[in-house]
Amino acid sequence: MKNQTQDMIIIDALELSNWDRDFLLLLKEGGVTCVHACCGLWENARETLTKVGNWHRFFKDNEDLVLPVHKGADILTAKRLGKIGIILGTQNTSALEDELALVSVFNQLGVKIMQLTYNNQNLIGSSCYEERDSGLSRFGKLVIEEMNRVGMVIDLSHVGEKTSLDAIAASSRPVAITHANPDWIYPSSRNKSKEILTALRGNGGMIGVCAYPHLINGHQTTLEEFCQMIVETVEFMGIDHVGIGTDLTLNMSDEFLAWMRMGRWTHNVEYGAGSKDNPSWPKWPEWFETPADFPNIAQGLYQQGMSKDDVYAVMGGNWLKFFDEGFKAEKELAKCVSLI
Amino acid sequence: MKNQTQDMIIIDALELSNWDRDFLLLLKEGGVTCVHACCGLWENARETLTKVGNWHRFFKDNEDLVLPVHKGADILTAKRLGKIGIILGTQNTSALEDELALVSVFNQLGVKIMQLTYNNQNLIGSSCYEERDSGLSRFGKLVIEEMNRVGMVIDLSHVGEKTSLDAIAASSRPVAITHANPDWIYPSSRNKSKEILTALRGNGGMIGVCAYPHLINGHQTTLEEFCQMIVETVEFMGIDHVGIGTDLTLNMSDEFLAWMRMGRWTHNVEYGAGSKDNPSWPKWPEWFETPADFPNIAQGLYQQGMSKDDVYAVMGGNWLKFFDEGFKAEKELAKCVSLI
């Protein structure tokens, strides 16, 4: 199988794993070209600096294997050098606190993707887990305008229905749902409605289908079922608008799980996309236990009868185009030629 | 006079003024190519983000007149476009707090110069105003190593004698005194001893001679006296090691003066380089009241009998070479060709 993916660009639009050299070697084994790595969940501006600083150290200590990605061309460089390109992003806008100018500051630090909300309402809007979602706030509109200006990609994966629709309408540029699935295939408050995905398609945006067990049918979901979902998503969205965003969480501690779900905002146990009966890190399907298994997904798509061009588009070609354009500052857009 | 400086690159290695469009027009009138602008005095990491964010806003709002400088080539671009290049720097390492990784983070934010201490002892060393200076701390040595690695210039202008000597010895790359004078010409604890300047010269470093009235003989210092000092400094240091760092403070408030001198660290009145009899912002010499007066300095140097090449070197050529090399990451140094 591996030979069939050697010239493929594979991009995973979200991973939250425990980054060490062993993990990098698994990515390399899976032929992964580029990963959007989570650089923050609930952290404020100061704490996010520490996270970025830790990534700088990781880049330095592993420069034979990794390459920080700030623009589309960096992804091609990573492919050429056989390194893993890493895009930093936060799954929240908590790093901005209440300060509009910090969009541009964190963009300069290579935080090229921000999810507008994590699991809770924040200064910008509401999450998919809030009971009510009153949509994009006044500050939220300005943040979107500023993200559009500087070339920071807007991510709606955990964002609530109304805030998502507002954000898509407000954004002058395509937005992303880096890691979620259609909710009519796998019902979950974290998955996305036809209304959102219709708006996303109209906006020129992209969805990264997600293998996080709680967002599919658990670890027993077969590769065939997962790839059928991809085919259905492509049928709904169009071939240019679908990629992969596994939400992989490998070798993470229970302590981190508690931080991920409960941050500092509650003293009660929260289960996120899990449940009381399934409170810990989920077991992953046997066809995707580590990023070394990426070729299985390509193989599964071929088995669905997908063409080579379409498999390449879904596995990474679409994200490459999307990030190449999305990471450019607005004023660069007019004068630049696409990589593809 | 202006015609004589049109092809000259003029670099001011420190200004602390109230940056607005009027000030930019004065810089343009003076033919200034590039300024090292003070982006922090006592601010911690979080507060420095706000300062950097304000600068981003200033760059955006005045993009017809300014250009942020991250590398030597940006200074040449500024000259070619007739814009003012701006290098951000902090006059303290307070932005790093106790976190080594923040050197690389602030370097990525374009803070290309950091003064190791402002007027007080800090985590790294001591200032020229402390009674005792025990030299570079353990953390200080690591910070210098990291600044050397990433290509952030070490500034010793307000740093104490022992810490300065330690820093020069510890640094594997040339360091700067962006704004101070030889103390045997103008005695002041802020000016620099023969011992420091000898070490600086040996290190390949540079000094920017300073027109701040408290560091010369007040506003009555004549242009001739100031330029005589430059000639003497060049004689001592060698022509390649001297530039200008005016420390200009135009249109600043008394509130800012209090912050500059007293930060949050004292409730007593402090006078910095001033005194009880001269507590406010100093009056500047009539030959340097605004940056539009830069050509006067070039004129004064010619009147001292300095050659055209030497005048060009002191007015900006030396800083251009120094910053071009100094802003490169260590690993870039070997493979890059100098601009000059």
TrEMBL record, chains A, B:
Pfam families: Peptidase_M19. It comes from the Bacteria. InterPro entries: Metal_Hydrolase, Pept_M19. PANTHER family: DIPEPTIDASE, MICROSOMAL DIPEPTIDASE. This is Dipeptidase.
